Amino acid sequence: RWALDICELRKPWIKSLYKTDKLEPLGEAREILKFARAQARKQAANLEHPLVCIDVIEEGIVSGPRAGLWKEANAFQGLLFSDTCKSLLHVFFSQRATSKVPGATDLGLMPRKITKVAILGGGLMGSGIATAMILSNYPVLLKEVNEKFLNAGIDRIKANLQSRVRKGKMTEERYEKALSLLSGALGYEKFKEVDLVIEAVIENVKLKQQIFADLEKYCPSHCILATNTSTIDLNLIGEKTNSQDRIIGAHFFSPAHVMPLLEIVRTQHTSAQVVVDLLDVGKRIKKTPIVVGNCTGFAVNRMFFPYTQSALLFVDYGMDVYKIDRACTKFG
């Protein structure tokens, strides 16, 4: 009816292109755009297209809407062939490709329901992982070796959540709800009702081997046994167990509740079902999960180690540290 009234000239045809009632006077508009440019440079120093968008808006305000549209069409055509555009397309499709894992996601397996998660270790990584879990409504059991360490771990999780409240990303009510999902433990008694355990203790082979032997005893037979190790061979960690098929790496990056990447490390023994289950958990806690092989440094540190070693090698050769730092930053 609305459209017909316009068509039959009963209602005015307002061409939105020529509406100016929401525009500030030119001087004010230019100040706003100047501020927007400064923000864009700060947030994305190496990106050209946010600045191009601002230029296009300015053209429309200064020279009229048709001039703005022409500038937009021309600018778009130019950006379309830029390296940044190709890179962003690559990232877009790469992120989607992470959910397709040959030998796991192509077998028709459905992820099993994970209703309770246990985390061993309330240090920087353990508390960060626990925060990510309770933010996505997973009940979490945090285990530590003594009362002092347990309280310190719970305090870290509270601090993580309070930081979100301060930044306005979370209400007080949501804070209380998330915190109510967290419980602490000093022993393994409550582990019989857990579907996923993530071990996040110090990088000590003997300690991890002992923990996984204990987990095998106390956890139900379907429970996924994951480790947050960044360097240790998973076969070595699970050496003293008969549960190699459900041992998997869940390698988070610090701070775990902020960084979006999650490496899921599978060995030649890890079952496809466990991989599918962890991929599902990764998506539910809003991470980008990538499935990688069980090798030194997995994927990220395997690239990062030579990257930092190269920088340090140039330092040893006497090159200016700031010059190296600038090259790293400019690279992205």
TrEMBL record:
Domain 3-hydroxyacyl-CoA dehydrogenase NAD binding: 116-294
Keywords: Isomerase, Lyase, Membrane, Multifunctional enzyme, Oxidoreductase, Transmembrane, Transmembrane helix
BP GO annotations: fatty acid beta-oxidation
Pathway participation: Lipid metabolism; fatty acid beta-oxidation
One Pfam family per UniProt: 3HCDH_N
TM spans (from-to): 117-138
Keyword Flavoprotein: no
PROSITE patterns: 3HCDH (PS00067)
GO molecular function: (3S)-3-hydroxyacyl-CoA dehydrogenase (NAD+) activity; isomerase activity; lyase activity; NAD+ binding
Cellular component aspect of the GO annotation: peroxisome
Domain of life: Eukaryota
Family, per entry: In the central section; belongs to the 3-hydroxyacyl-CoA dehydrogenase family.
Record-given protein name: 3-hydroxyacyl-CoA dehydrogenase NAD binding domain-containing protein
Lineage: Eukaryota, Viridiplantae, Streptophyta, Embryophyta, Tracheophyta
